[in-house]
Specification:
The structure is a homodimer. Chain A is about 75% helix and about 0% strand. The N terminus of chain A is likely disordered. The first copy, chain A, has about 220 residues and is an all-alpha fold. Chain A has two domains: about 70 residues, Homeodomain-like (Arc Repressor Mutant, subunit A, Orthogonal Bundle), CATH 1.10.10.60; about 140 residues, Orthogonal Bundle (Tetracycline Repressor, domain 2), CATH 1.10.357.10. The longest helix of chain A has 26 residues. The first copy, chain A, starts with a helix and ends in an 8-residue tail after the last helix. In chain A, helix 6 crosses helix 7, helix 7 packs antiparallel against helix 11 and helix 8 crosses helix 9. Chain A binds a DNA duplex (30 and 30 nucleotides) through helix 2 and helix 4.
DNA sequence: GAGGCTAATGTCAGCCTCTGACATTTGACA
DNA sequence: TGTCAAATGTCAGAGGCTGACATTAGCCTC
């Protein structure tokens, strides 16, 4: 999935001929139109026919670009995930796993804007994220994608630490716990009014400060 | 969802009249037949028509018992989740959150057998779990259900500790982290040959022992 | 135990997602 | 310009799911 998205982005950056450019234009139009309809009237309330009619292509063409209706909804998420993974790979090997993950995510969110803007307006991307969080079908898919992402992160952590991922449970564990924090962050952010990446950053940083305390044997009543 | 499942189980235990008994029989037949077909030939490869033909009811009847094809696949999971939640509620208030969660889950797995057996043979339930883990669509739904479950657990933890869940992030965090461990456990168990609940217990206990070490600043190279 | 009430089921038409097969158009490139 | 291949369109159809309406079958009362 990430490979596909990366390839698509790379191709968009360096279009070879007219054919390739046209393809990117069609794909982009489908994504933007879908996002607009999904955010305006809801995911379930939008049919493929509406999307393809607005873009003026056949339904069959839609399904040649996207395997299913869900996939178009995650067009920008793929780029975001790739960014996050790359950030982790860029962290120095000496850094402790949890620290590296934390820094990588915050880092990725900082660089998010420019990358996303190439595909759709950032504001639309953020509004779409809320649609994903509030649409049961999409939320389910999102969680599965997140799980796949976590597996990749765990393998990278294992590589950094020189461990065999099938022998030592710690890489998967630390990523799973970290993923839990991020998920809670996303949820809280989705419930707020502040639709900005800085708000997202703040919540995440705040949550991560509580990882230690939350695992303590006994919690003091005041926080 | 849990309320529905609990109600269904309760009704099965004390059927009032012939009407109610017939309904439970139909529901049970649908679940068992679906499980059998799903585990034998796969979820995607099984059509609703196949199920209803084997049970000899109309397709419309199926959709009156289950909102969609996915729901029947989670018929026994609902009971398992309820059991887990009840176990947590039964833990003494003095127990530390993480300890209570750990004990509750291990406890629930011990009592799983009897509860499930009322619905379908336990072995079928376990085989079905593997189908869920290995079918993308079902895995996605499973993760969403898990997330909803985690929200309920977090609220119970907050209640036990006398905290406001919207003010203090720790309840959601500890549950999210714990959930991560359980998810890894389920995944590892699904990949093994040993299809028993005791194996599940062992893996979980082993994983939980690593929660502390995984969060440590630096990991020693030997485990 | 006949008859009315209502819950459960069946039937049917139709929408939406998604796929395979085949025809048509349109860049690319010699 | 003409050939090749890639992209798109058209069409038929399977499978999931729903609303509307008809039919069946427990239940309850007199």
């Amino acid at each position: 999935m990430t490979t596909d998205e990366a390839a698509a982005t790379a191709a968009a950056a360096a279009p070879t001929g007219l054919r390739e450019r046209k393809k990117q234009r069609t794909r982009g139009a489908l994504v933007r139109t879908a996002f607009e309809l999904f955010t305006r009237q809801g995911y379930d309330e939008t049919t493929i026919d509406e999307i393809v009619e607005a873009v003026d292509v056949s339904q069959r063409t839609f399904f040649r670009y996207f395997a299913n209706k869900e996939e178009v909804a995650f067009a920008t998420q793929g780029a975001a995930e790739a960014l996050c993974f790359d950030s982790l790979c860029a962290r120095p090997t000496g850094e402790a796993p949890l620290t590296a993950l934390r820094t990588a995510v915050l880092d990725a969110w900082d660089r998010m804007g420019e990358t996303i803007e190439e595909l759709v307006p950032t504001e639309l991307h953020l509004r779409m994220y809320r649609v994903i969080e509030s649409t049961p079908t999409l939320l389910a898919v999102h969680l599965r994608r997140t799980m796949e992402m976590e597996e990749r992160l765990a393998r990278e952590i294992a590589r950094r630490e020189g461990l065999d991922i099938d022998e030592d449970p710690r890489p998967r564990l630390v990523v799973a716990m970290f993923g839990g924090v991020i998920r809670v962050t996303g949820k809280l952010w989705g419930e707020r009014d502040d639709l900005s990446t800085t708000a997202l950053r703040d919540i995440a940083a705040h949550q991560l400060d509580y990882v230690g305390p939350a695992l303590a044997e006994h919690w003091s009543k005041n926080h």
